[in-house]
Amino acid sequence: MENQTFIEEFIFLGFSNHPNLYILFFVVFLAIYTITLVGNTLILTLIRTDLTLHTPMYYFLSNLSFLDICYISATVPVMLANFFRTQKTISYEGCIAQLFSLITCAGTECVLLAIMAYDRYVAICSPLHYSSIMSKRACMKMAVFSWMCGLANSLVHTLLTLSLTICKSNELSHFFCDVPLLLKLSCSDTSVNEAVLHLASALIGLSPCLFILVSYIRIIHAILKINTSKGRVKAFSTCASHLIVVVIFYGTSNFNYNRPSSGYSLDVDTLVSSLYCIVTPMLNPIIYSLRNKEVKASFMRMGKKYFSSSART
Hints:
The chain is mainly α.
């Protein structure tokens, strides 16, 4: 038998229990998508144009903002279009493309958050060597490494998924394509796919998480050694935004993937996945904007510059 699918398209069942609320869903997710695009684009613009933000921390934040734009764009446009269709479908090729994009973004973000934790660790625990350790060249290599990890992980999963014969059904209990869902629909032997999935979860998911945990244990230990309370607060404030983002990302992803496969309704599955894939990319720029004085100051300078130029014209 050739490695090909008998199914040309998939039907998404996510949100199908509430057809009367499709207009409301469309408005809500369109608003979330718009806020995410505007917020992350604003962060990218600020970091690119404001010289005071040309530091390693903001260089990694710009990568995170671009990543979040790609992340949410892999799912929401298809979902918004499907709200106006009788059947919520995606082609087989579109499903594979969506799968590749999502896994790339998820894997890259895991590694990038670990790199950002390392940046905060060096800044607080080795401030005298910060500029030499976190040089521009080193930061570029770290960012490229995070993207290469995400791409390599995604390429392996995508190729293994392409080798499957999908024939049990074309209905996905979700609003996007995911590897575990496609494995359930396969008539092929999925043992290799499952083994690689567990291995990737340990390498790309668990390892960065443990690295972040160790980094923050050392960061907290170093902060507690600071003599003044003002100094401790100032030191902790430099990594508070990143820590909140990490907790939200890993909290929602672990709840999404590491929970019992049974006992949850379609509505609960859809809600949890929405928090993980859609709401989290929207929250990241908001968290960094509200909790970061440098970002807020840069935003104010950009606003004054814009209004002053508008007044002259």
